Amino acid sequence: MRTDLVLTVAQSKRLIAKGVSRYEPVRRALAEGTIAIPTGGTNAYIVEELLGEPIEKRKFVSGQVLPRGVSRAQAGLASELPDIVLVRGERKEGVSATEALAEMGPGDIFVKGANALNYGLGVAGVLIGHPTGGTVGAALGTIIARRIHLLIPVGLEKEVGWEITDASQRLAEEEGSGPSLWPLQGDIFTEIEALEWLFGVQAVPIAAGGVAGAEGAVWLACFGTPEQVEKVEALAEELAAEPPFATIS
User: Fold this and answer.
1) Domain that holds residue 149
2) What's the total number of domains in the chain?
């Protein structure tokens, strides 16, 4: 049986966060290990789902992509809330996500969002404006060396039609302004994985974009049993109330 979902960017973020909260490696780390969550748009939703309470999501951000001429202040964005580190489900105060890595190991999870996606290739891309690589630069070596689980929650709206590794190389070769692009491999978690973990359905992206608030939306055909499809449709009703992450004041 089939049902379709058209998800705005904010609805996708909420769906991904709900899926992450049910993901078995995350459930295990909540019970037995550490989850480090640096600031980020999608990560803010994940924090809410893991803590079971709302946060000021627009203050849990670092870099954000904005239209030309729009400032972070106009969009109500600020880097005011600290990273979240959960040790056996309890919040550890005064420790950043990258600082927590020193005590982390296999089975622990570091959560990092992305700016670009090659879903079929299993590669994400992160824009880098910081001179030493930002969060990725500070964390990746330790993540690899200690075999920490790198979870990359990213919406399908960030799928790009060019290979991220090739684009990264082109940016490295050319002079000019603008960020670098860091190809990143890990456990990529999109709306597809969220729907699988939440309901056991197979989701197939069949279209993208729209108008009247559906700009950037993804269209997913979801296949499952009648009972599974009914649960997807119930969640769709719940997600319909999800407001945009930020608006211009």
Assistant:
1) 14-190
2) 1
Assess if residue 208 is contained within a domain: no
Say if 167 falls within a structural domain: yes
- Residue 95, domain member (yes or no): yes
Distance, in Å, from the CA atom of 39 to the CA atom of 61, rounded to the nearest integer, reads 5
pLDDT tens digits for range 121-143: 999 999 998 888 889 999 999 99
User: Which residue has better confidence, 178 or 185?
Assistant: 185
How many helical (H) and strand (E) elements, i.e. helices and strands, does the chain have?
8, 12
**What is the Cα–Cα distance from 122 to 188, expressed in whole angstroms?**
7
**pLDDT for 157-168, tens place per residue?**
999 999 999 999
Q: Using 50, 70 and 90 to split pLDDT, how confident is the model at 237?
A: very high
Q: Strand 34-37 to strand 109-111: parallel, antiparallel, or no bridges (unpaired)?
A: parallel
CATH number of the domain within which 66 lies:
3.40.50
> Average pLDDT of 60-70?
87
Q: Are 48 and 17 in contact (CB under 8 A)?
A: yes
Give, as one character, the DSSP assignment of residue 122.
Answer: T
Distance between CA atoms of residues 162 and 160, nearest Å: 6
Q: Where are the alpha helices (DSSP H) in the chain?
A: 9-22, 24-32, 41-51, 97-100, 134-145, 164-173, 191-199, 226-239
- Whether 175 and 221 have beta carbons less than 8 Å apart is answered as no
